[in-house]
Amino acid sequence: METVKKYLKRYFIDAMGAMALGLFASLLIGTIFNAIGMIPHLEIMATIGKYAQAMAGPAMAAAIAFSLKAHPLVIFSAASVGYAANSLGGAGGPLAVFFIAIIAVELGMLVSKKTKVDIIVTPFVTILVGGLLSILLAPKIGTLVGYISKFIGWAALQAPLVTGILVSVVIGICLTLPISSAAICAGLVLTGSAAAIGSSEGLAIAGAAAVAGCCAQMVGFAVISFRENRWGGVLSQGIGTSMLQMPNIIRHPQIWIAPTLASAITGPLAVCVFDLRMYGAAINSGMGTCGLLGPIGMVLGWLSPENGYPGEVTALHWVGLVLVCFVLPAVLSFVFNEILRKLGWVKDGYMKIES
Fold first, then answer.
1. pLDDT, tens digit (0-9, with 9 covering 90-100), for 107-163
2. CA gap 65, 78 in Å, rounded
3. What's the CA gap between 32 and 48, in Å, rounded?
4. How far, in Å, CA of 225 to CA of 293, rounded?
5. CA angle 88, 89, 91 (to 5 degrees)
6. Given pLDDT bands bounded at 50, 70 and 90, which one contains residue 306?
7. Residues 27, 9, 233, CA angle at the centre, nearest 5°?
8. Distance of alpha carbon 105 from alpha carbon 60, whole angstroms
9. What is the 8-class DSSP label of residue 352?
10. Residue 192 near residue 185, CB atoms below 8 Å
């Protein structure tokens, strides 16, 4: 049992925690640069952001290798493995990187510093193993994640109340898991924009619900973990990623209850009460408050004539956007989490982020 606990900690806590940091230092910080690049005369920031985002796979794999205390040559070789796994994994890219990088790194360590030609053998083995696994397994992992996409596609065709609940909860969970909620939303074209082929009112509703669910996860975790992580945690989770909580979720799954319940409420409120619709870029539907791109995408959809937003944007829309993306996730998650604390299900230290 002790051996099992040791490996569970090594792979699903240490490695996954490091992977979240690698994702933050590439894709997510690049997203923030992209948001800054929307400001007139600061377009160069968006260019920097695109380069940072392109390095998500290598950054995640190198972070995993570092957490496993791999030798330098193995860490550097893992970057190639991460690029391949992330590229071939589609929406399941981060999940593919997680499993494939661990296997490649561990096998690379078996030969590292064992021969006189280590500079050839170690990267050869690490990249060969990682490359083959990426070609063989990463697309299959992407296919598995595709089943989630099919479910979201079905949910988008239901009544607004049902769509609001299901899409908000599932896409919000995907945002926190090591899979790409943004890629899922982009692949399903969760927007009603006239520029999107096959756009419809149902997709616009689903896109708004997705924004609500993602915001609920990020803002929710930022607020309920304030005791442990203070303002640094608010920023890293609130405009970065709630995936930083994945190692803690594995230890204490119950910490996921509060933000998930919040998303089940904010999703239907967004589409049924505040009449929110996503007519911006579909990828922004799965971004939440990362770089504030979820709310920004919705606003750009309202204000850009080419997006074909039907009707007039009223004060109700603006109030609803602020409430659904920021205020309600914070308040609801806090209330639900306090109830869980009263029940003894959540305790101090459960959501501490290891930096």
1. 999 999 999 999 999 999 999 999 999 999 999 999 998 898 889 889 988 899 999
2. 7
3. 10
4. 22
5. 130
6. confident
7. 45
8. 12
9. P
10. no
Q: Which has the closest alpha carbon to 29: 5, 54, 2, 4? A: 54
- Percent helix, strand, coil in the chain, to 5, is 80, 0, 20
Helix axes 16-23, 93-111, angle to 10 degrees: 120
Read off the tokens for 47: 């260019």
Rounded average pLDDT over 51-79: 96
Q: Who contacts 250 (Cβ-Cβ below 8 Å, separation ≥6)?
A: 8, 12, 13, 16
The Cβ of residue 149 has, within 10 Å, a number of other Cβ atoms equal to 19
Tell me the CA distances in angstroms from 209 to 155, 179, 198, 289, 313, one per residue in order.
11, 18, 18, 14, 18
- CA 227/CA 268 separation, integer angstroms: 29
* Tens digit of each residue's pLDDT (9 = 90 or more) over 8-25: 889 988 999 899 899 889
- Tokens at residue 211, please? 């924004």
pLDDT-based confidence at residue 51 (cuts at 50, 70, 90): very high
Is the Cβ–Cβ distance between 17 and 247 less than 8 Å? Answer: yes
- Cβ atoms 32, 287 nearer than 8 A: no
Q: Are 132 and 104 in contact (CB under 8 A)?
A: no
Sorted by where each begins, the domain ranges of the chain are 1-144, 156-355
Q: Which two tokens stand for residue 299?
A: 């606003």
Contact predicate 18/63, CB 8 Å = yes
Angle between helices 93-111 and 56-67 (to 10 degrees): 50
Q: What is the mean pLDDT of residues 271-299?
A: 92
For residue 166, what are its two tokens?
A: 């299901």
Amino acid at 156: A
The pLDDT value given to residue 195: 61
